[in-house]
Write a structure and sequence with these properties.
Layout: E1 6-12, H1 20-30, E2 36-39, E3 46-51, H2 54-63, E4 67-77, H3 83-89, H4 96-100, E5 103-110, H5 116-125, E6 142-149, E7 163-172, H6 176-180, H7 196-205, E8 213-216, H8 223-230, E9 234-239, H9 242-245, H10 265-271, E10 278-283, E11 297-302, E12 313-316, E13 335-338, H11 341-355, E14 356-369, H12 370-373, H13 378-387, H14 404-407, E15 413-422, E16 427-436
Parallel strand pairs: 5-6, 8-9, 8-11, 9-10, 11-14
Antiparallel strand pairs: 1-3, 1-4, 2-3, 4-7, 6-7, 12-13, 14-16, 15-16
Helix pairs in contact: 1-2, 1-7, 7-8
The structure holds S-adenosylmethionine.
Length: 439
């Protein structure tokens, strides 16, 4: 590992920007990447770090979903006119290898469209560099990377870029996983299957590692198990929906009349040759104790039901159910009760505190309603609800604070990170990561 320190640019995809730092920091921690921010994660489509551990950085890059490419940063300039001088003065360009190798120059602009002709002009500006090797568009020894950054406001594009980056391309990320594992070609999906990008993102943020045992207490069609299994975990889950787990619902694909036998969580893992990682799925109610106390998981990764596209249910006795004779009420199982959001999260945290290994992670989504929190005033919300069409109070969490550090608390779990994904103007969901600690 004892290399000299180098600067690297990490180019992000323009997607799920709120989760960039959660993912990068989680993978950096998993692969013990010792680094320093030169330009930290911001709204820009890139960040710059410094490290002497390129091997660990490549491990991060092999998994990262929200980045597209990695390159060595030789020059970062804010002056278009001085840029060429800065490249000429950088030490790397005078290295014998780079002076004599075959090469090509890849040009990119962010925040402004530049034509093919303008790209060629940029390359011509670089023609004074001391590069003596052959230009080779296919399989060159080195690809140099030139990027102009024009800011994020498409209505106010400056004449000259705010920043120009130049360096050596190292690798692209593994984002093609998102299309390889797309739900469009997935054997078995359900109403709320998690898409491939978010599933891989969650597995990365949860730092799923080879041979981990991973559990999803609201497993549905098992999308989160697929990504965990891809990273080498053994996976299992629970869902209350017996027909869903046992292939008794309508077929996944529109137009097909009959379900295939392997339209199941197991079938999904088989589709991707990950069946050796499948433990099992249990039809059961995650509000009830299902496991012996000594069963432990490395990670719990889940998307609980919020009651928007799927019902929130748990098994229980409805004392007031008039259809059940009074003498049977005590033993009346299973009647379905509404599973309140507060209870879902309390149960999930208690379960995680009991069944995670020390330092194990639980990662989950929780809904976040803006108009409820805007005034940060629960009483006010209750009054408004009498006069306006707002969601039923019971369908909302019973807390008047949006801060996950207050909303999600357990003495044996500590909040590691969280990020928000906007769904509509007033409604978001937050991804929360907590880690088991021993007191
Ligand atoms: C948001 S979906 C999960 C989707 C899943 N991540 C996937 O990719 O298909 C929530 C799941 O929780 C299940 N569920 C609802 N109440 C439950 C309970 N009490 N115990 C276990 N599962 C429950 C629902 O049947 C539904 O499949």
């Amino acid at each position: 590992m004892s290399q000299t320190k180098k600067s690297y640019v990490i180019r992000f995809a323009n997607e799920l920007n709120n989760f960039r730092s959660m993912e990068f920091n989680a993978l950096a921690s998993l692969y013990k990447l010792d680094f320093k921010f030169i330009e930290p994660i911001s709204e820009k489509p890139f960040m710059i770090i410094e490290t002497n551990d390129e091997a660990a950085l490549l491990n991060v890059f092999n998994r990262i979903i929200l980045a597209t490419s990695l390159f060595e940063c030789w020059v970062s300039s804010s002056d278009f006119d001085e840029f060429i001088d800065e490249v000429n003065n950088c030490t790397q360009i005078h290295n014998d290898y780079y002076r004599n190798c075959s090469f090509r120059i890849q040009v990119e602009a962010f925040g402004r469209k530049i034509s093919q002709q303008q790209k060629i002009e940029r390359i011509e500006r670089l023609s004074g560099l001391p590069l003596k090797g052959k230009i080779r568009m296919i399989n060159p020894d080195v690809t140099f990377y030139y990027m102009e950054y024009y800011g994020l406001n498409p209505n106010r594009q400056p004449e000259k870029p705010y920043q120009i980056l130049f360096g050596k391309w190292i690798t692209d990320s593994n984002r093609k996983l998102c299309s390889t594992f797309s739900l469009k070609t997935r054997k078995f999906i359900a109403n709320t299957s998690m898409d491939a990008t978010l599933s891989f993102l969650m597995a990365n943020i949860a730092q799923i590692n080879i041979n981990d045992i991973v559990y999803d207490p609201f497993v549905g069609s098992g999308s989160l198990l697929v990504s965990a299994a891809y990273f080498g975990a053994y996976v299992c889950g629970t869902d209350i929906d017996y027909p869903l787990l046992h292939g008794m619902i309508k077929p996944t694909r529109v137009g097909s009349q009959q379900r295939d036998d392997d339209e199941s969580v197991h079938g999904n893992l088989k589709q991707y040759k990950l069946e050796s990682r499948y433990i099992d799925v249990i039809a059961g109610d995650s509000s009830l104790p299902l496991f012996r106390n000594d069963i432990e998981f490395d990670a719990i990764i889940t998307d609980p039901p919020y009651g928007i596209r799927e019902s929130r249910e748990r098994i229980g006795t409805k004392k007031s159910d008039p259809t059940v004779p009074i003498e049977y009420l005590d033993r009346h199982l299973p009647a379905k009760l509404q599973y309140k959001l507060d209870d879902i999260y309390n149960d999930l945290l208690n379960f995680s505190a009991q069944h995670l290994k020390p330092n194990g992670m639980v990662i989950f989504w929780a809904p976040y309603f803006k108009h409820f929190y805007k005034n940060n005033d629960y009483k006010n919300f209750k009054q408004q609800q009498q006069t306006q069409t707002l969601p039923q109070i019971d369908s909302l969490p019973k807390y008047d604070h949006q801060d996950p550090a207050i909303r999600f608390q357990h003495e044996n779990l500590r909040l590691l990170s969280f990020g928000e994904q906007k769904l509509t103007k007033n409604c978001s969901r937050i991804l929360v990561v907590m880690q088991k600690i021993l007191k």
